[in-house]
Give the backbone structure.
Amino acid sequence: MQAKRLTDDLSVSAQLAVAEIAEAKAAGFRSIIVNRPDGEGPDQPRFAEIDAAARRAGLEARYLPIEIGKISDDDVAAFGTLMATLPKPTLGFCRSGTRTATLWALSQAGRRSTDEILQRANAAGYDLSSLAQRIKTGAALAERSAERHDVVIVGGGAGGIAVAASMLARKPGLDIAIVEPAEVHYYQPGWTLVGGGVFQASDTRKEMASVIPRGARWIKAAAAGFDPQNKTVLLEGGRTVSYTKLIVAPGLRLNWGGVEGLEQTLGKNGVTSNYRYDLAPYTWELVKGFRGGTALFTQPPMPIKCAGAPQKAMYLSCDQWMRQGVLSGAKVEFLNAGPVLFGVADYVPPLMEYVNKYGIQLSFGHNLIRIDGPAKRAWFKVTGKDGESSVVERAFDMIHVTPPQSPPDIVTSSPLANEAGWLDLDPATLRHVRYPDVYGLGDVSGAANAKTAAAARKMAPVVAVNLLRDMGALEEPHEAVYDGYGSCPLTVERGKVILAEFGYGGKRMPSFPKWFIDDLKPSKAAWLLKERVLPEIYWKAMLKGREPMAKPRRKSPAAAE
């Protein structure tokens, strides 16, 4: 293998043999782009063989076949998207490397000077001088089509919309763009109540256009990559948008494919999940129709979105079965990949009262790895305290699955990620630790806080104040700080909630006086908060730049010094 370096992120090569894929891994490459079409010559392996070898070596491989002399603008855009999203550094190849080098050169139009592009290609052994005019034309088109905004927000979920509204409430007229491809915005905390028969699914959704704050520009596209050195976000299709300040809030990735067989059986065969809008009603359908048998509830390794949600579904189901008189004929098991029922120890005793009341079997260290819906069988990898693992099988009549969760690929493959792939933020200011013009909030955060809507509600004004302060748009002597606040209203029965509120380090942080809501006891007041008050706060306050009980505290002068 003879790789020729174009940039720190990309090298090119002539045709690789399958045996050379391991060499690429050993050389430090993390991904491969194949630009030679299958069957072009008798000396080449098919992409499927390259892909299989790459997987064995721990590399990602992508296939973007290009016929000689036929590189379209769409091909260039696709190459740019691959370069933005794949783990770096990347090795690209075709028969000689020329097509890959050409794709790179054209993708850099408008981002580097024509002279620099041609010089880099020439230093790698590729004379691309015939492309000079096309590169210049592409640069001119890119300049005309590129957008620029003072603040760009990637993500139109709870965090992205809330922080946009918070900034505009403090600084009307601010130039803000929100990058978000979805047409619909969801109140995801409501899906627990959909699965419990309290809400209709339609109660938890609104058109995205109706929640984009007035004054913000909606870029209806998916972000494909980040270039913080050049203060640019790459969009799918090759477009770019540049910024003065960037806020990253794309949420996290629900990896349904991370459990073998799960995607093929979701929504049927008694397999459901409140983690999806279209499946939460099926949860209620199964609960209502349950007449006894085995009900399994799973929780994958942390971190996950709303860590209490898997057991919320379980408690509401058990309460309904108790009301229907069928709980005595049910075997309910909570299979948690983690070692404890709940991460904040103070809340475990009141939760255990309900575990015992409903007769729930707790199985820790059990991680769902495979499911066969038609056969109604599930397999779990069991890891003991000694680190030894085995696989156990469970039969079920109903199973509520919480999917494995991970950072979104767009962050993991970018310079913005920490070692675990999450957004690398200062836990107090929510400013990126290496790029001071980048902030983040919500589920993508690498800070050690809970991934809940309540956390995003408290994070949004902290980001708004600090970013505007950095821009000189807000006269504020001290930075705002986030204390790790998160909340998990644990629906232990219909009509009662244990309102768990906590910050960094698992410290309890109750918001209400004990006479009104005792956070260590189930209460009707906390249920009313969950069912009626919090949805109103979400739609009419949090997403509108109003911040009841969410005003950020400032760093003390002593701490600032």
Observations:
- The chain has a mean pLDDT of 92.
- Residues 148-252+407-560 form a domain with the FAD/NAD(P)-binding domain fold (CATH 3.50.50.60).
